[in-house]
Amino acid sequence: MNLLEARAVSKTFGTLTALSNADLLVKQGEFHGLIGPNGSGKSTLLKCIAGAEVPTQGTILLGGRDITAVTVPERARAGLSLKFQITAVLAQLSVYDNVLLALQAREPMPSLMLSRSRGALHERIMYLLSRFRLESRRDELAGVLSHGEQQWLEISMALAQQPKVLLLDEPTAGMSPHERRATGELLMPIKESCSLLIVEHDLDFIKDICDSLTVLDQGQVVESGPTAQVQNSKRVREAYLNHA
User: Fold this and answer.
1) Residue 191, Cα to own-chain centre: how many angstroms?
2) DSSP β-bridge partners for residue 240
């Protein structure tokens, strides 16, 4: 089943064309990598899908529904969740409370004011923390976590609302080799319930976890398909060599 689609998406900023008729398809239960040289349009396409940018032309579909012009909160309710490259955890709150707030995002205000949901959400919070090796850090301030652990915390927060598709923008940036390996291991189990679209510069990392890849160069798709096929593409090698 086709879960997420970008059809002929273009985005211009004044005289600059960041994207030109870009197509992308993410299937249900698939990990899909979006790669390309610096300035190729990867982050722009991700932002158009997430709603942070509005395409100049083209269509974004989620589960067959046209979400091109809907708001970011509406996209979240439809099943889209995003983690940008820059970590946005609340450093002065505990690890536990960061996930609690993510889970409470759709709670009605009276429920929040009376703290009705905290106890009911405890099991879900601990489940998410355990999946990302953070259960022993639950009472610590998020600000004392390592960079990699903060990234894991934010991914767990992005998964709190059980999205259909998770969008990740360079989640391993700034991580140690050990943390990058661990991140791949921690992400794999979510495939059972959630598709993934990931922008990443670490090609070794992305080829190990992604079922398929889409490659952008100068705002255009140069190749898309199964990871092994794209890896061996002459057009892809040329795109990277031209920017070396």
Assistant:
1) 13
2) none
Amino acid in position 181:
R
Alpha carbons 32 and 26: distance in angstroms, whole number: 6
36: left (phi over 0), alpha (psi -120 to 50) or beta: left
CA distance 223 to 7: 15
Chain centre to alpha carbon of residue 82: 5
> Around Cβ 212, how many Cβ atoms within 10 Å?
18
Rounded Cα distance between 142 and 145, Å, is 6
Its domain, for residue 53, covers 2-241
Q: Which residues contact 116 (CB under 8 A, 6 or more apart)?
A: none
- Cα distance between the two ends of the chain: 37
Q: What single letter denotes the amino acid at residue 8?
A: A
Q: Domain count of the chain?
A: 1
At 105, give phi and psi (nearest 5°).
Answer: -55, -30
* Nearest residue to 49 via CA among 17, 78, 91, 6: 6
Q: What are the average pLDDT values for consecutive 10-residue runs of the chain, which has 244 residues?
A: 94 95 96 91 94 95 95 92 77 93 71 60 93 96 93 93 92 88 93 93 87 94 92 79 57
- CATH number of the structural domain spanning residue 131: 3.40.50.300
Q: Tell me what pLDDT residue 174 has.
A: 86
DSSP symbol at 13:
E
d(Cα 83, Cα 170) in Å, to the nearest integer?
9
User: What are the percentages of helix, strand and coil residues in the chain, rounded to 5?
Assistant: 40, 25, 30
